[in-house]
């Protein structure tokens, strides 16, 4: 999935997308008004790539599950200063000093997901660190199945 600016990306499940499951970079000017919340990004390589978010305004990346089997859960190019980061769970490498992420333990965090997307049941497992990790301030009203989200909020595309 690739976006540029002025949009809300919410409640998506992206698995095994090649280069990165999610990418955001400027094409004409700096990215602005991007809200990326309650998504599940799973990839054998890079899970998420954010480019030039420090130059943007009103940038939010919250309550996302970012899982990489062999690479970066989050890769940042040209900074992320000023971006709101909260309630994310990651498996894979993160940039040094990054806030707003807690560690995941791998695909066992989900009911039944595979790196290649053959299995796609991305509901959180009973003991998953996704449960209760979400930021209430950035919680969506419903999940990917249009079921109500309730506190404590679950990170990723599925609610409790």
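^ structure tokens above, recovered residues below v
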């Amino acid at each position: 999935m690739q976006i540029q600016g002025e949009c809300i990306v919410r409640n998506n499940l992206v698995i095994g997308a090649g280069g990165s499951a999610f990418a955001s970079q400027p094409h004409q000017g700096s990215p602005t008004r991007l809200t990326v919340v309650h998504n599940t990004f799973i990839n054998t390589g890079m899970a998420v790539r954010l480019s030039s978010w420090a130059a943007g305004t009103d940038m939010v990346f919250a309550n996302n599950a970012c899982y990489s089997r062999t690479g970066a859960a989050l890769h940042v190019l040209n900074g992320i200063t000023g971006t709101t980061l909260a309630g994310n769970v990651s498996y894979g490498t993160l940039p040094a000093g990054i806030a707003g992420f807690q560690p995941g333990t791998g695909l066992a965090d989900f009911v039944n997901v595979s790196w290649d997307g053959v299995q796609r049941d991305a509901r959180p497992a009973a003991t998953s660190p996704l449960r209760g990790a979400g930021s209430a301030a950035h919680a969506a009203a419903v999940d990917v199945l249009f079921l109500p989200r309730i506190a404590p909020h679950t990170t990723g595309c599925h609610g409790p």
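Residues 149 and 159 are 5 Å apart (CA to CA).
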